[in-house]
Amino acid sequence: MPELPEVEVVRSGLDRWVSGRTISTVQVRLDRSVRHHSAGPKDFSDRLSGRTITSVQRRGKFLWMVLDDEHALLAHLGMSGQLLMQPRQEPDEKHLHVRISFDDDAPELRFVDQRTFGGLRVEDLVTEPWLGRWVPTSVGHIAPDPFEPGFDSSLVARALRKKATGIKRALLDQGLISGIGNIYADEALWLARRHYARPTGAFTGPQVRELIAHAQDVMSAALAQGGTSFDSLYVDVNGSSGYFDRSLNVYGQEGLPCQRCGRAIVREPFMNRSSFRCPGCQRTPPNAHW
DNA sequence: AAGAACTCCTGGATGC
DNA sequence: TGCATCCAGGAGTTCT
Fold first, then answer.
1. Whole-angstrom Cα distance, residue A8 to residue A59?
2. Looking at domain A4-139, which CATH architecture does it have?
3. Measured CA to C1', what is the nucleotide nearest A180?
4. Chain B bases closer than 7 angstroms to a protein Cβ
5. Does any strand B atom come closer than 7 Å to the Cβ of A32?
6. Separation of A40 CA and B10 C1' (Å)
7. Is A274 near strand B, with its CB below 7 A from some atom of it?
8. Are A188 and A146 in contact (CB under 8 A)?
């Protein structure tokens, strides 16, 4: 499941493969994959034909290709989305939903997505309120991620402490800080020895900043691993595969001993999914906000 | 209006 | 063995 590090691997790969190239035709094979493009699949294709991609950018888990007409092709990978560079003669993947062809002989760009939570859309660019950065319309409410120049953890801490909710809900709130998903939230909380239901209001500013620093650390480590294996035609999303086994301390580790205290990691229902924590070093706080 | 719940989806894993 | 159920979860939508 792509979170910030996995999306960044895709972004950097795409930047190398598609920047400067001109789109010839776009084939939408599954309308659902462009469902957020309000004007429909035909308009989606029409707006891309003839456009040249100037750069590939990212905020949190959103990535977009800036076009030469001041619009952007925005992509979100959802749970299982992949953006692949494939030679034209390569057989279609089972879940190939959108094919973007270029006016040259180099590989085409394919959007492949088994669970179809991801999608593509063409949007205007707008100025967002935190850094004044030029982003696609629907990214306008997504807060800066910890790797952006100008990211201000003090600002995040102030906003977060004002929320009436639990700390993990806040970490997952892309309007507060973006890029963090279920995996890295659990890992950052373990590193900071915090329970996921600790109320945001119980945190001091420095405690929030420490937690954010841990999130940065774990995502940097993941990015370092995902980045190493990427040097082929294949712009992949499973940067998680190598990372999963080696470095995760709590996520998916139910029943295994905590690397700090030896207590068995527990899995608990949370927001219709799961939270993993060590019952020894991440104690349930008073006034827990589930 | 903020915060929480619900919803979308597929296929591998699990249970009987 | 085969069928049914569970489970993964990002973010837009709907609810309270």
1. 9
2. Alpha-Beta Barrel (3.20)
3. C10
4. 2-11
5. yes
6. 24
7. no
8. no
SS3 letters for A228-252?
Answer: HCCCCCCCCCCCHHHHHHHHCCCCC
Could you confirm whether domain A153-277 is CATH 1.10.8.50?
yes
A37 touches strand B (CB under 7 A): no
Structure letter (DSSP) for residue A75: E
> How far is Cα A208 from Cα A2, in angstroms, rounded to an integer?
24
Distance A82 CA to C10 C1' (A): 15
Dump pLDDT digits (tens) for A36-48.
Answer: 998 999 999 999 9
The most confident of the ranges A8-12, A19-23, A244-248 is: A19-23
Q: Where in chain A are the domains?
A: 4-139, 153-277
DSSP symbol at A181:
-
- Both tokens of A247, joined, read 């470095």
Place of tokens 């190939």: A96
Rounded to whole angstroms, the Cα distance separating A248 from A245 reads: 7
Distance A289 CA to B4 C1' (A): 12
A163 beta carbon to strand B: under 7 Å: yes
Q: What is the pLDDT of residues A80-94, one digit of tens each?
A: 899 999 999 999 999
pLDDT by residue (tens digit) across A260-276?
999 999 999 999 899 99
